[in-house]
Amino acid sequence: MPLANTPTTVPVVVDEQKCIAEKGCTVCVDVCPLDVLRISEETGKAYMRYDECWYCMPCEADCPTGAVTVNIPYLLR
Amino acid sequence: MDEILSGTENFDCDVLVIGGGTAGPMAAYRAKVKNPDAKVVLLEKANVKRSGAISMGMDGLNNTVIPGHATPEQYTKEITVANDGIVNQKAVYKYAQNCYSIIQELDKFGIRFQKDENGEYDVKKVHHMGTYVLPMPNGETVKKALYRQLRRVRVLISNRFMATRLLKGKDGRIAGAIAVNTRNATFLTIRAKSVILCMGAAGRLGLPTSGYLFGTYENAANSGDGYAMAYHAGAELSNLECFQINPLIKDYNGPACAYVAGPFGGYTANNEGMRFIECDYWSGQMMQEFYNELMSGKGPVFLKLDHLHNETIDEIEDILHRVERPTRERFHTRRGTDYHNEMIEMHISEIGFCSGHSASGVSVDEFARTTVPGLYAAGDMASVPHNYMLGAFTNGATAGEDAIDFATEHDYADFDEGQVVAEMERVLAPTKREDGIPPNQIEYKTRRLVNDYLQPPKVTRKFQLGQQRFAEVREDAEQMVARNAHELMRAMEAYSVLDCADMAAYSSLFRTESRWGLYHNRVDYPERDNENWFCFTQLYKDSAGKMACRKQDVDPYIVEIDDSERYAYDNQRIQAGD
Description:
- The structure holds 2 protein chains of 2 kinds.
- Chain A is α+β, with helices and mostly antiparallel strands.
- Chain A has a single domain (12-67), classed as Alpha-Beta Plaits.
- Helices cover 13% and strands 16% of the residues of chain A.
- In chain A, a hairpin with a 6-residue loop joins strand 2 and strand 3.
- Chain A is globular, with a radius of gyration of 13 Å.
- Chain B is of the alpha+beta class.
- Chain B has 3 domains: 8-58 and 137-244 and 352-418, FAD/NAD(P)-binding domain (3-Layer(bba) Sandwich), CATH 3.50.50.60; 247-348, Flavocytochrome C3, Chain A, domain 1; 426-553, Methane Monooxygenase Hydroxylase, Chain G, domain 1.
- Chain B has helices at 23-34, 72-82, 89-109, 142-152, 225-232, 258-261, 284-295, 310-320, 328-335, 388-409, 418-428, 439-454, 460-476, 485-510, 530-533, 563-566; strands at residues 8-18, 40-43, 60-61, 134-135, 156-158, 161-168, 174-181, 187-197, 237-238, 247-249, 267-269, 301-304, 344-348, 361-362, 375-377, 535-541, 547-553.
- In chain B, the strands form 4 sheets. In chain B, strands 1, 2, 5, 6, 7, 8 and 15 form a 7-stranded mixed sheet that branches.
- In chain B, a hairpin with a 5-residue loop joins strand 16 (535-541) and strand 17 (547-553).
- In chain B, helix 2 (72-82) packs across helix 3, helix 5 (225-232) crosses helix 14 and helix 12 (439-454) runs parallel beside helix 14 (485-510).
- Chain B is globular and about 65 Å long.
- Chain B starts with 7 loop residues before the first strand and ends in a 12-residue tail after the last helix.
- The chains are: A alpha+beta, B alpha+beta.
- Chain A binds chain B through residues 1-3, 30-35, 38, 41, 49-50, 52-58, 61-62, 70-73, 75-77, and chain B through 1-2, 46-47, 49-52, 55-56, 160, 182-183, 210-216, 219-221, 251-253, 325-327, 330-331, 334-335, 435-438, 481, 486, 489-490.
């Protein structure tokens, strides 16, 4: 059976103006317990690649530039 | 990205600790401090800096035994009574004796605890009988403080490796573990003289009411891998039918924090704003009354703070919105709910395994030893009941110190290399398929079925149907497909969830009585049957590779329970006229 992609609105949002991932920063990616953040090969910025969030907040709390915001996943709101 | 590579690395160490949350770092730290020349490895699926139940922090120690406030005897009694008598008192008593020294050690690490105007620990009463709850005003610093200590004593840390199976020696001893990298699917085979499992609760067993797979009460990374690994290695597991079910903020699924709010005057109320339980301490009996109220005309159930002074509510809010689960402030803001103006809706959690709050887990003695020589377990996945964060630290320390001695006294166990080959083949199977069923669908279906058939009140026929459905999903799992290393991690977790579902069903059916309130409320065996069931349920894999259970006697008590105290937790409902 072939696979389909189902769209989902992701809870973790990165402000690309503030994100300094292109300078080598990977703090948010490193600290996530669910390992759902990555650095985009296109933009060089951090983004949420997998919608598997425990809304726990280390990514936001540890970001050195305040670029990351954790929202409550839509299904829980 | 997350591309699957091939590769295997081999590594030898004296003590291997798996899981870098709470118990794990303390176990590794103590092992290394006791023998600084030893090679101690801490393996973690995520990153030790922020992994586990206390990822963001913790608002207090729920079970301190501090001289002047409580005694080990009194604490052991309370935990015995709260668990309907079926406890290993030696392990509980040892925890109670040792936990004060751990508090002092954590204090030295820079984690501060609340003190009163005389500089004494400011312990609060939340339990039914004794006084054990100690607030942590800067509880958000716990992980950082631990990490500093691990670096200082040079514990070797390996992040983003998910252990999938333990290696067994030819003589039955533990020989090490196999792990797969969660970013590139390369393998690590680790030989170890002793292994400590600190892999947390089985938090992804039931499906939260929100339907969001990761909106669990427990840190969603805690998918029950430790229970599955212990089982497959031949270790016994105790009382898995004593589920974890907690009273939580509806949908947010975070703790309602009666332990935080209770000492300030907050409480659990029904829709009339009335108290209906005697004591907000989490026990199976309390959860049964919670469930009864929820299902009654006086439901749902609420956390009530709006009768308190505004400044008191501000103080409670400051703790709730800052320490353990800080996103709850955002949840309430979006909902427009405010503790100052109204009661906040609560609900019961999905089911799980977690000795932090209930009494199930990999069977351990007072030295944190499992039934497999050289294999230890501590924290939420080990069987010491109601052990919370301080239990993870204290029993983790015990495990670390005993495991380093074991490693000194033993050499590496000889093991059959075939185990490694077979495990690599099993793990990589989902990456070899072109299409099939993605891991999230296997997991969703398993957990939906857990809710349908395993959520108490427990009905025999429903459990049997659940077992049939799980077997079907297990067959379907043979078609699971993982397109990258991240999905492969989720695929392995889906197997852990399925293993835990099977264990939950099997041990529940074995115990033909009701016990621990809602946790094991079997409606077709409604009575507690001390004559036949005053015992542990030990679940294990038999010599034919099948799941089996046996009864195990409760050791004679070292702290006697008076008849007047024995039933202190039985009557949690506030009686009319009280």
